[in-house]
């Protein structure tokens, strides 16, 4: 599933057993068959439905050691949109308890990633269907950058997003993406430190 990570190749994603930033949606679950050529030149077509699917599953984490993947067959699904947000906080102020078992105010990291639906079937807006977390534990930095998103449901669509059929795309752009090194060099140090989120 590429809802959480879109800047990845199929071969790189597959050969490393990546999960795509989600515990709910896995690109590997969508792979039906893998065609590869081994070191002797023999072509192998591996499938989940083989009598012994162990080679199929091994190819999904092989780092290319079983051969060169020449074709991957996917089970496609209907198109969907995601919406999300990013926050920069201290470890204590993070939306999730990175090390602990969680609390009413701060779910465990596992619960945060699983995004268990609420009792009425709605998604829990405090949790993530997709997540990327970067943590800088260094002294005087101690920050967590957390991006979270979810697949949009009917109630998420509004005049800003457009309808599901006429979605108004707003791509994710990381802070500083358009700031060139020349611009950064011209800024005072205090501004650069503030932009990087190092001081409060």
TrEMBL record:
Q: Check the UniProt entry and state the signal peptide residues, or none.
A: none
Protein name according to UniProt: FAD-binding PCMH-type domain-containing protein
The protein's matches in InterPro entries, at most eight in alphabetical order, are given as: FAD-bd_PCMH-like_sf, FAD-bd_PCMH_sub2, FAD_lactone_oxidase-like
Q: In terms of domain of life, where is this protein from?
A: Eukaryota
- An example Gene Ontology molecular-function term: oxidoreductase activity, acting on the CH-OH group of donors, oxygen as acceptor
